[in-house]
Amino acid sequence: EKGVAWLVFPVDVQPEENPEAWVVDPPNFERISSEERAVVSQGIGEGARSLRMIGCDLQTALKPDDISEELAKNCFSQLMASAKYLASGPHQSLGLSCWEAHQSVEQVLKLMDRQQRSDHLQIHELKSLFAKVEGVAVGVDKSFIKVIPSSSRIIKIRAGEGDGVNPHEAYRIYQAALGAIRECCNALNHKMRMRNAAFKLKQAPWLW
To answer: With bands split at pLDDT 50, 70 and 90, how would you rate the model's confidence at 160?
Structure first.
């Protein structure tokens, strides 16, 4: 439409998007069976949708003070750092991936707590942090607590001590954190919702 532009905040994968194109150093998808390729593509799309939902929800979540703003910012940045370390390959990076995943969940639980009482528990144990907000954490599956290590173990993992983690466990921890944060962000109080929002804007005449 002439003279009109759309500003869209997509959450779902759009028809013109190809999730396989988002993979850095991808495998040869042509050599993978159609069934396996469909599973991989679906997984990439679901991951992208979760990240978009989290990004939109954190932007529109009520933040009563500067500390809340910082918690929201750190939640997303640490979740992204977890994925970066997970994908980097070296074994020592797996511990950092798990640490960042734990930290990102910690941030969103503290933000949820802060929305309710303008304060949050000064602890790092996810089980205790979730127990404090469980009454308002509508739709949040607390099974992530069984997957993401305790605060004492995560410190040892980060330092390379104890039994450590293998790639499979590190991936499970990241996925658990991703799901928990998505659900927690959905349960936060919001000024508005922006998921898949679209705004029709009138362009300046000189841009026609």
So the answer is: confident
